[in-house]
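Late entry, evening session. Most of the bench is empty. Finally got around to the prediction I had been postponing all week. Sequence below, unchanged from the version circulated by S.P.
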Amino acid sequence: MMLEEEVEEIPEPEIKNRKDLHQSLERIVNKTYESEKEHQRLEEELNMVKSYIIESHKPISELKADDYEVNISKTEDSTLFVVKFKRADMRKFSTLYVDTFDERFWTVHTWEKATIVDPFISKIAKTEFKKDYVWFPSQYMERFKEKGLLRSITLQYSELIEGDEEKSIGDLSMKLGGSASEEVLELFRKLPQVKSLILRTNDQRLSHILRVCEGLSHSSPLSGIGIKHTISEDEISKFILDDIIYTGKFTARGGNSVDGHLYLLRTAKEEYATTIKYIEDEIAMGLVEESPLRMSGHPISIILSRSVEDLNAFSNEVISCKYPFRLWGIPRYESKDFIAITGVDLHTGSKLNLELSKDWIRLYLPKGSCGNTIARFYSIIQHNYDSNAKLEGVEYGELF
């Protein structure tokens, strides 16, 4: 994860409406920028503007988190709320500003310390019923490069099921900065092809190194991306340096206008919400009550580039009820090479049926179930098993 250790105390302004919130966010971003110009680097101790996207199927009045005291108050804007929270071991409340204009996908703004806010957001997304992160697959993350100048990429991988010990990566976290970072990521993903070329040279030392590193080809998901987004207004260049994490966290690390940060946040949320709605409306399967009665929707397939060695162990992990999958299920058919599962998503209590093989996973989402379940499952596969996995459908190609 990207470092965000901020410790400076910033007086809390009174936020009555969106205009007040925008002015406060702008003030913090400008302060970060002035510090950067003065010191020629970003001050790690400076509190930064951070924004999160949270998926919710419940109203904000029901917001709670285990081990936290949570107080919610209204503002002059009917969909903007002030949320104060603290654990028993905390000396004071911390503050979030929650925009629920989109009732399904909230945006949360703060300039509190990341070490305080991140655990609270995590508690909500991981444990609260009908709350979740958004989950940006690697392909979705790569599209942020179209919105600005690439500054850095972050890879974060945690092995779900141990395989060949010689090729096993285990846990991997890496941040690459500079213009060449994209090429390094591409090299990781194409190591098997590079290995085959080097084997032809009969260089035993290089062959051994690549054999050890071959696991990088399936363990390099794009977990974070840093870009410089520029806005042109009246010939004055305004920009923001934003770091984006695949679970929907946006951090403004510098710049001279918060508008770029809010633009990246808004467009990412809208594009993601459109995809989730498409999954729920067009892909989720169910009977259409017309004459004659017909079935609508399609299964969704995840094509694996890394074969599953122990399908039974893999299946048990998927339906273990544990985070991150948060799925419970009962195998209704099992063989050495194929398992069919009737499952329940513990995030919403809705159904999700699965078919697992060594080279693909097929997902059947019933009508009325949460489309975010598909994005979560796919992202987890990329970050915990096969970063080169592709999500495909029957008639509509790639979704992300």
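Two things to note before I forget:
The first helix runs from residue 18 to 39.
The CA atoms of residues 327 and 345 lie 5 Å apart.
Will write this up properly tomorrow.
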